[in-house]
Structures are given as C-alpha cells and as structure tokens.
Fold these 3 entries.
Entry 1:
Amino acid sequence: MPTITRTAPAAAPSPRWRFDVQLISAHALAQYMTFRGFTVRSLAERCGEKQWSTVAQLRSGRTNTCRPDLARKIEKALDAPSGSLFVPRVTTVPGAPVHLPQSTTTRRRPRP
C-alpha cells in the first residue's frame, strides 16, 4: 500500500511595500521655485542632491513621486508649509507579488 504524505501549504510571501511621497502639483512646485528664485539646479544643490534630474522631473511633471527626505528638504528650501507640496503614499515594489484577499462569494455571469 502506498504511503501518502501531507505537507502544509507554503505560506504566501508578503508583498514588499515602499513609502514614497507624491507631488500634489507640478505647477505649484514651479510657482514656489519662481517665487523664491530657485532654478532646478540651485534647488537640487540646496537640498544636497548630487543629481538634479529628480527635481527637474518633479517640476516638469514627468514624475510625481520621490523619497520622503527629499520632499522635506524641498519644502524646507522653498519655505513652504509642511504637506503643502507633497502627500504620503504607500506603493508596492515593482515585481513583488501582490496578494489580494480572495472573495468568498462567486459571481455568475448572466446567461445570454
């Protein structure tokens, strides 16, 4: 008689989360920069960024997320109230599996 062995199902890997901040408005950022007399490069230098491309992409609207520490430095350099240019956002890391809860009910398609 063959032996049957049972193994516990493998635990699903947890998704990897990343905390970013999202720019509320590229136009508002550009207005603050103009009002305070900053160029993209001068703002990046004031924030301690070696590469100014992130600041340029935020201003142009090409991207709307950045690291929380950079967002704080930008708001401080522009003398903007905290939270006036950026809002918190939690995202999943690209390529990491995302596990959604399974529905307990099944929907049936209506018959034609």
Entry 2:
Amino acid sequence: MITHEEFTKKIFKNTKVQAEYKSLEEEFSLFDELLKARMNTGLTQAEVADRMGTRTPAIARLEAGDGNKKTPLTSLHFESMPRQLETI
C-alpha cells in the first residue's frame, strides 16, 4: 500500500489530472472562504442554516463542497453572515 503523499505525487504526473485539479481550484477556494467567513463570525452551521432557511446538513455539505453548487445558495450563505467579507 502506498501513502497518500506517494499517491498524490504519482497521480499529479498525469497532465489531465493536473488540468482537472486546476479547473476546480476556484470552486474549492470559494468553499474555503465560506467556511472561514462562518468561523470568523462565530456562527455555527445551525445558526447559518436558520438564517438561510435551510437545515444544518445543507450547510455542512456546502462548506465541504459536496452540496448544491448553485450560486443563489452560495450567495445566501454569504448574506447570512453578520459582517461583510473584504475579499474572496
């Protein structure tokens, strides 16, 4: 069995894998910013979900990048924060 680090080095030698990873970089950066924004405000996922009119698992999936990736839900997440983000 190989380690995660060994696997990553091996798989990233493939240019198609590199290209796909790069194409997803912006999307995952957004999810990271959503999580940081929530953490910086001190809100729980449940509190954000309540403000958005959704359930906690939806916020968990959104922050993990596994949820509904439609822009309106992402925008609602940012709007549920008590302060504005300076940059994304």
Entry 3:
Amino acid sequence: MSAFLAGGQFVDLILLWLGIEFIVLSGCLRRMAWRDLAFNLLSGASLLLALRQALMDASLASIAFCLLAGFVFHIGDIAQRMGVYPQAFGTRISN
C-alpha cells in the first residue's frame, strides 16, 4: 500500500477520475459547459501532475512548470468567472 502511495499511481487514478468527471459533466450540462469546466479541471490536473512529479523525484524545473501551469489555468478560471473574456469562449454575459 505504501508503494502505491509513494509511487504516484494513486495520482494517476485521480487524474483518470478527473477525466471521466469532465466527460460526464460536459455531456450532462449545456452545450458550452465543457468550456466553463476546462480551466478549473486543468488547474487541478496541473497540481496533481506536480504532486506526481514530486513523488517520483522529478526535477525541480518540471515541478515548477506544472505549478506555473496550474497558476495560469487558475487565473484563467477566475477571469472567466468574472466575465473578463467571455467572448473568447463563445458565451455572452447578459446584464
């Protein structure tokens, strides 16, 4: 069990679950919902990849890259939620 946790295989299972969640949610919700979910899920996936890299003793640069990608996706998610650039995703905010 500790090899499973220390080896990073549990992170692979979580990433698989995240991908299934994305497919199910985008299929169940309205047509453009996958675009609303994309930044949020990619942010979480980037953090999980950074965790996996750290558990696998990868280089500090690859861990930093995953964390930077997570930050960029997080900022994109916040900007989308605030309505900063909704036209880029084909949605309109009506006031």
